Amino acid sequence: MKNLFKILDLSSAQITEILDSADELKLLRKKGIFSDALRNKKIGMIFEKASTRTRISFEVGISELGGTPLFLSGSDLQIGRGEPLKDTARVLARYLDGIMIRTFTQATVEDLAKYSGLPVINGLTDLAHPCQVLADLMTIREFKGSLEGLKLVFIGDGNNMCNSLVVGGLKMGMQVSIAVAPGYEPSRTILSFAATYGNQFKITYRPEEAICGADVVITDVWTSMGQEAEAAARLKAFSGFCLTKELLSAANDDYMVLHCLPAHREEEISEEVFEENAKYIFEEAENRLHVQKAVMLKVFA
Ligand code: CP
Ligand code: NVA
């Protein structure tokens, strides 16, 4: 695997391989056993948006694989002052062995790979959040035993998480239903991809319809990073989309709720639902570390 740009680029077999490797890395870490597959490798981590989990899990993961992580804040780099990406990319190629980037457009991630020639992992764009969705699939498999045939429901904004979950869920044989507000549908490419799965995918504007018979329910913020100016309009558009116990009463009895975090209580999720599902949500956060180590072994080692 040369890069990880988005889940759409991965085959089901590749996703399974990553999840299997992540499970193994999780077990080995518990035993205190670490590989040094990234020894002597310097990995740049460019952040043009804020982060807690992605930054720390990548930094810890690179260190645990024997490599050296370099935290590079977009606002401190010259790209923040207008240096063309293709120049920064060609410079980074002289120092580094790989890059993880969190940015706005998907094109930035792909151009960075093109101009640097280095392997690149997408740590979130406006379009996709592949590392998070791999961690979500790992967490679901861990608690439910398998993925195939489960009903995965996403309630909220048709954002990067929604896009990546639709693709990841369908590729892994899950039934995927999403409820979004009108005007906040996922990207057209994702909807075209999902349409090839026929009845395995459903989209509605009614959360109570999507959630019927759900095994896994996932939500995310209504206002993603970079959309702050739209916050008030979004709050209004998503009224009735808060994940509450009442909404979840139509899910299967043994449902689990995931949230990539950070969460906004009483907006996309109630305090009660969040806390009742904390054991899943924080395992999901931990699994970022294991799954990204598995990805890095494929992309950077
Ligand atoms: N879920 C996630 O990507 O968290 P951060 O924004 O804290 O990295
Ligand atoms: N959709 C959110 C995810 C944060 C991890 C955002 O892009 O801000």
Number of domains: 2
Give the % helix. Answer: 40-55%
- CATH topology of the largest domain: the name is Rossmann fold
Strand content: 5-15%
Order of helices and strands: HEHEHEHEHEHEHEHEHHEHH
- The first-level CATH class of the largest domain is given as Alpha Beta
Shape annotation: globular
The secondary structure category is: alpha/beta
Tally of helical segments: 12
Separation of termini? 10 Å
- Average per-residue pLDDT, rounded, comes to 98
Description:
44% of the residues lie in helices and 14% in strands. The protein is of the alpha/beta class and 301 residues long. It has two domains: 7-129 and 288-299, Aspartate/ornithine carbamoyltransferase (Rossmann fold); 132-285, Aspartate/ornithine carbamoyltransferase (Rossmann fold). It has a five-stranded parallel sheet with strand order 7-6-5-8-9. Strands 2-1-3-4 form a four-stranded parallel sheet, with helices on both faces. The N and C termini lie close together (10 Å). The model has no long low-confidence stretch (mean pLDDT 98). Norvaline binds next to helix 6.
